[in-house]
Amino acid sequence: MQTAYKRIVIVGGGTAGWMTAVAVATLLPGSEVELVESEEIGIVGVGEATFPFIRLFHERVGIDETEFLRATNGTFKVGAEFRNWRTENHHYFHTFGNFADIAGPTSLWSQYRRVNDPALGVLGEHCLASVMAMQGRFVKPPSEQSNLFTYAYHLDAVLYSRFLRAIAEKRGARRTEGRIVGATRRADGGVDRLKLEDGRDVAGDLFIDCSGFTSLLLGRTLEEPFVDLSHWLPVDRAWAVPCEPSGTELTPHTIATALEGGWAWRIPLTDRIGNGHVFSTRYIDEERAREQLLEQLEGPALAEPRLLRFTTGHRERFWVHNVVALGLSSGFLEPLESTSIFLIQRGLLKMIDLLVPGKQPTASAVNDYNKNMLKAFANIRDFIILHYCLTERRDSQLWRDVSSMELPESLAFRMHVWRQTGELNQYKEDGFVPESWLAIYAGMENWPERLDPVINEVPFEEALRGLHQRRDQINAYVASMPTHAAYLHRVPGR
Ligand SMILES: Cc1cc2nc3c(=O)[nH]c(=O)nc-3n(C[C@H](O)[C@H](O)[C@H](O)COP(=O)(O)OP(=O)(O)OC[C@H]3O[C@@H](n4cnc5c(N)ncnc54)[C@H](O)[C@@H]3O)c2cc1C
């Protein structure tokens, strides 16, 4: 049985558009799927570091990992390394791993703080995935111990769109080439049909707006207001350029290096390194930002750097009438934690779950969808701001401003609770798990003012021995793993 929306039209063929086409063609059998895109306009073509949710998405839509890695020159990602964020020459890891217990008498971080033994190194050395990143090694978690850590990927964004397109078309999605110049509305305010430049019309029952920053339907046609977040997330430009790999170790993680007016990314693929400098024109001009990026490259540039312009923020609502926006058309919160593709996949699967066959989603279900997406954006917004506001750098205006700015109330409250009580379970929600918040707090050396006395239930010597043992076990396990490059060579067809 098909859903109330027989004809589903997708506007745009970037990562968001083709992911949507695959999901709709696979999970909503009986729907007619048409994707309209303009080759002349092209796609944003960045977005190459991901979040572990991508694996769940691939599983739901039946995408095979080996085929995906081969098609996208993909590599594995266990997290990110943050360089120079707290102070210059300081670095830490935020990986998709755990730190054993995070509350109660055996809380690992609390015992680590309590025993205060310099020989134990930084807290990251007690997290398996972070040690894998530090040593450039990778294996998938054993299936019986999948709670040890999880992983995501780095991918070539252009190849990923192509790969998804081939799958979507094979599963019945139809592609229409053409530039959309407008849309006609129904009596209830929804969209009736798209108008193409050459005079053709594309009619639909449900329109998924994946048109990128132009937000053709939700922004331009329906005029849904934009919530500007640039007072908290001031970056507004990025230079992006691939370069040849230098022959150094293929890291199983992204690197984000803080600079004078923003930060630079390094994303390793099997054939090249993706680089970018995300910056704010309030603090550095475009030319200087371009120079800083080129100075950082570890190998010859493979193209001219490309400039991307954006404003951080999102639409007030994401699903209005018969239009749902996914991807950049719905909003963008800067790429520091690789959350944009995650938000697309999350919104997409939630939308599909609401399209119950034979029923129109109720107004309250749509309302819940909007609230839920708003919350997801707010949580990620807070998590990204955390990386900036804890800085101890005062060497340029960007760092002076972000370290003294007024924070969103939700974040200020969380940070207060952490400092006062060491409580992390308040972070149990979609997206970033408590361990992620702990990784940033620990990495930035931001600790609670006192430790919960309950940890004294464990004798001091026992706690100290336990920490040393765990660290030794992690080191021995990681030493037995292949390097990330060697592991990738085992992917068939490489
Ligand atoms: C600097 C930067 C770095 C990023 N890094 C990451 C990252 O590491 N990880 C991550 O998860 N995300 C990242 N993102 C976000 C990520 O790039 C996007 O979420 C992802 O690529 C999806 O883009 P999209 O499909 O929404 O838009 P686009 O790729 O821009 O696609 C828009 C589509 O709409 C079509 N279109 C637009 N107007 C018309 C028209 N008038 N007629 C017909 N067709 C039209 C275009 O042709 C295109 O096909 C980054 C973004 C930026 C800007």
Automatic annotation (TrEMBL):
InterPro entries tied to this protein: FAD/NAD-bd_sf (IPR036188), Flavin-dep_Halogenase_NPB (IPR050816), Flavin_halogenase (IPR006905), Trp_halogen (IPR033856)
Coiled coil residues, start to end: none
Gene3D superfamilies: FAD/NAD(P)-binding domain
Listed PANTHER family: FAD-BINDING PROTEIN (PTHR43747), FLAVIN-DEPENDENT TRYPTOPHAN HALOGENASE (PTHR43747:SF4)
Name of the protein described by the UniProt record: Tryptophan 7-halogenase
Organism per entry: Massilia pinisoli
UniProt lineage: Bacteria, Pseudomonadati, Pseudomonadota, Betaproteobacteria, Burkholderiales
